[in-house]
Design a protein that fits this description.
CATH architecture of the largest domain in chain A: 3-Layer(aba) Sandwich
Oligomer: heterodimer
Distance between the termini of chain A: 34 Å
Distance between the termini of chain B: 43 Å
CATH topology of chain B: Sufe protein. Chain: A
Number of domains of chain B: 1
Number of strands of chain A: 17
Strand order of the largest sheet of chain B: 1-2-3
Number of helices of chain A: 15
Number of domains of chain A: 2
Helix content of chain A: 25-40%
Structural class of chain B: alpha+beta
CATH class of the largest domain in chain A: Alpha Beta
CATH topology of the largest domain in chain A: Aspartate Aminotransferase, domain 2
Shape of chain A: globular
Amino acid sequence: MNDLSHLRLDFPVLQRRVHGKPLVFLDSAASSQKPKQVLDVMDAAYRTYYANVHRGAYLLSEESTAAYEQARGKVARFINAARAEIAFTRGATTALNTVAFGWGMDHLRAGDRIVLTMMEHHANVVPWQLVARRTGAELVYVPMTDDYRLDLKRLSELLDERVKVVSFTGMSNVTGTMPPVAEIAGLARQCGSLVVVDAAQLVTHAPVDVQQLGADFVAFSGHKMLGPTGIGALWGRPEVLEEMEPFEGGGEMISDVRLDGSTWAPVPHKFEAGTPPIIEAIGLGAAVDYLDKIGMESVRRHEMELTAYALSRLAELPAVRVFGPAEVDHRGGVISFALADVHPHDVATILDQDGIAIRAGHHCAKPLTRTLGVPATARASFQVYTTREDVDALVDGLRRVQEVFRVD
Amino acid sequence: MSIEELYREVILDHYRNPRNRGSLDHPDAHAEGTNPLCGDELTLDLRLEEDRVTDVAIQGQGCSISQSSASMMSQAIKGKSTDEIRELIATFKSMMDIETAPIQAGLDPDRPGAVLGDLEALQGVRKFPVRIKCANLAWTTLEEALRDQDD
C-alpha cells in the first residue's frame, strides 16, 4: 500500500468540520484543496517582496520577477519541457481559447475538420465551436465505446487530410477515462493534424512528459493541482508557439508599439498580455514543488489503489451504477455514478449532511452526460490527500441516501 | 434540522408518482423553465377557461425537490382562477423566503390562494439555501406561462 495519508495534515481545510462532522472532501476534480506549503509561499510573497514583474528597476520587482520566472521553470520541468515553452494563462480554459483562436483563426477554413471527442469538458468544445463558426470549419466527435473508452477504431476512420486539429482530454472529468494520448497523437500527426491535449485532469493524476506525448499543445490549470485559481499554463511545441499569433494584446506582450502596428515580445511573453497573476504563478510553482516531492509516479499509484478500492466498495451497493472504465489502468480517480432513481442533487444534499462533499450535475460536459443517458451524475473524485476512510464514509453515506429514499 | 424533514414522505411520493404528467394539445398557456446549473428542466401546459385553469400538464426532469414541487403545484392550481393562482405563487414564494416566511402565519385560511396544503411539506427546503431554486422552478415557470397569457 502506497500510503499518503500523512499528507492530510498539510491541508488546513481538511481539519474542519461540516454540519458537525469531519469534512470528507471528494470534489477535487472540480478544484483541489491547497497545502500550507502553497498558502505560505503566496502569503510570504505578498508580505515580503511583492511588486509588478518585468518592469521595475528596483529590488522588489527584481525579486518578484525572479520568483515568477522560477515558477515558470518549475512548471516546465514538471512536464519535462523548456521554460520558454510555457505560457502562463488564467487556466486551462484560457489556454485552450488561446490555441483555438490564436492558431485556429489563421489556419482553419471552410471544409477543414476539427476532431474532438464525446468526453470533452465544455472548455474544449465551446472555443472550437466559436472558431468553427467564424472559419467555416466543421466539428467531428469521436464516440465512446460501451466500456467508456475512446473508440480508437472510429478515430482512425475519421482521420483524413481534411482534419486540421485533433483536440482531446487526457483524462475525462466525468468517467475518469484516460485515453492513450501518445497513440492518438501519433495517429493524428500522421495525417498532418495539430494535436491539442486538455490535461486539466491528467496533469494532477499521472506523470506527464510532453516529450513522450507527441502533442503540439498541452493545456492545464493550477487550481486542480493543489495550486491557486486564476493561473494555468499552455505548453506548446517551440516552432508552433513561435508561429502562432497572440490571442490577447496589451502591455508586457509587445516588443515595440507604433501607431501603425506593433511587434511582439519573444515567446512565451507574447502570450501574456497585461499584468499576470504573479502570486498565483508563484503559488503554482509551490504546488509543483509539493507534487514533485511526493512524485507523480507515487501519486498515480496511490490513486490507482484508491480507485480500485472505491470501485470494489461501490460494487457492494447493487443500486449504484458506475459510469466509467472498470480497469484502473485506463482511468483516474474520478468516479461518476447513479444511485437507483435518486437524483444526484438529492444524493449530494444528503451526503453533505454527513460532511461529505461530492459534485452533482453535468460536470460541464453535457454532450457526455447526454450520451450516458442521464441528465446528471453524482461524482466522487480523489487527490493525494484522499484516503480509504473517505471512501468508507462515502459508502456509509450512500447507504443513508438509500434509507432516506427507501431504495432496496 | 434532520434530512428527513427535507425529504418528507409526501415529497418522495410526488417525486416517484408525479401527478398531471404529460402535455396538452394546443395549450392556452405554455412555458419552459430550466436551472442551468443543476440541469433541472420543466415544461408546463395550461388549459384556461374563462380565466380559470381547467387542466395542467407537466413534463421535465430533475431532483426530487423540483419535480415534487411541480407535481404538487399542478394539483394546487387546477380549478383556480388566475388571480387565485397569482396569490398562491406569492404565498409559496414567501414560504421559500427566509425573511418573509413568518408572515404566512397570518394568512386568511378562507382564501384559496393562501392555502398551500401539501405544498407546506416543501418548507424544509428553506434550510437548504442552494435547493430553494429547485423548489421555485415550477413556480417561476408558472409565472412565465401566465405572463404570456396577459400579453
